[in-house]
Design goal:
8 helices; seven-stranded mixed β-sheet; alpha/beta; about 20% helix
């Protein structure tokens, strides 16, 4: 019979954590948020499960959209919504993919876990060559190992992620990933740079490795545009700092679900109303919601997050109203350079700074 100690040792070997110097968000063993939150107890989870009021999630057999172009040139920012937090960003002749997920389930080996209700909007084999993969954190609906293996075998992309994740990925056959701490930057190509930025979330693939690898968002600075990919996050004071470092974003990709029940989700997930405030504070030219409509992770229904977002935007006075573009799986948009309408952006004073 295997003892508890042996099981813990096995888990530690399988799910290696990060070891490095202490910082303002790392105690030498585990990471923590700038604004720590009280961990929810098993009784909180049980309370949620016993009182659930699930929204509707009809399955869809929608046909994926046509293949994106192989590249786009300088001065063009093209964004394609694949599914969940998987977005194809094409700018300055680079193809960047965020949190790629093509598995039928988000869970162990892409076979056990939460199943998808919506097909990926782009067939995997229709993807253009991927140069860069940005991984926000290690949760199964963001770090999908079968998809990463396929990408590495096909395109050998450069993978950029948070502290501790490359060591874990290497144990799973995905080698060569690079790690960035919050506020560290790396060049992605000529005139294109990425900076890892704080998120208010957590990490862990099992109950034994929580907080052992870093979670983060990314800011991509191109020759003409600046894109904020928030990954997965709750509300936090980092949005004020983002505004102080980058006065505005051409595009913000913001998660809006799961947000119900709010008493359970608020610590670690933005709500649609929160996303409106983030768009205002960061003076984002265009906001595209992500992290909705593919996997049922909370009580909100398939379209409830974007319906709630539309209602939240409509309540905002015109002078403070952010520009929101909703893309469903497979849909794309070319984002107008922010210089064309910078004077009409909402003032950061429209929203209360965190």
């Amino acid at each position: 019979m295997i003892g508890i100690g042996a099981l813990v040792a096995c888990a530690a070997a399988t799910f290696p954590g990060y070891r490095g110097p202490r910082s303002d968000h790392f105690d030498g063993h585990r990471f923590f948020n700038e604004e720590p939150f009280e961990e929810q107890s098993p009784s909180d989870f049980a309370r949620w499960q016993l009182s659930r009021h699930r929204g509707e999630w009809p399955d869809s057999g929608a046909v994926p959209a046509p293949a994106p172009p192989m590249r786009v040139g300088d001065g063009v920012l093209r964004v394609t919504m694949v599914n969940h937090s998987t977005v194809l960003l094409q700018l300055d002749s680079l193809n960047i993919l965020t949190d790629p997920v093509w598995s039928d389930h988000v869970g162990l080996e892409g076979e056990v876990g939460v199943r998808r209700h919506r097909a990926p909007g782009i067939v995997f084999d229709s993807l253009p060559p991927i140069d860069i993969v940005l991984l926000s954190h290690d949760h199964y609906d963001h770090m999908d190992l079968p998809t990463l293996v396929r990408l590495q075998e096909r395109d050998h992309p450069r993978i950029v992620t948070g502290l501790g994740n490359p060591a874990y990925l290497a144990t799973q056959g995905v080698r060569g990933a690079e790690q960035l701490d919050w506020w560290q930057s790396a060049q992605l190509g000529r005139g294109v740079r990425v900076t890892a930025v704080p998120a208010r979330h957590w990490s862990g693939r099992t109950l034994s490795d929580r907080y052992e690898r870093l979670w983060e968002g990314f800011v991509i600075e191109g020759k003409h545009d600046t894109v904020y990919f928030a990954g997965d996050t709750g509300w936090g004071r980092m949005y004020g700092e983002l505004h102080s470092r980058w006065s505005r974003f051409t595009l913000a990709l913001l998660p809006i679900a799961p947000f119900r029940p709010r008493w359970y989700m608020a610590r670690k997930h933005l709500s649609p109303d929160d996303a409106v405030r983030v768009a205002q504070i960061t003076r984002s030219g265009t906001t595209i919601p992500i992290h909705w409509g593919t996997f049922e992770l909370g009580d909100d229904g398939e379209s409830e997050p974007v319906d709630t977002l539309a209602a939240a935007v409509a309540k905002v006075p015109a002078q403070c109203r952010p520009r929101v573009v909703v893309l469903r799986n497979g849909e794309h948009a070319e984002i107008t350079p922010i210089g064309d309408y910078a004077d009409s952006l909402p003032s950061a004073r429209c929203a209360r700074l965190p």
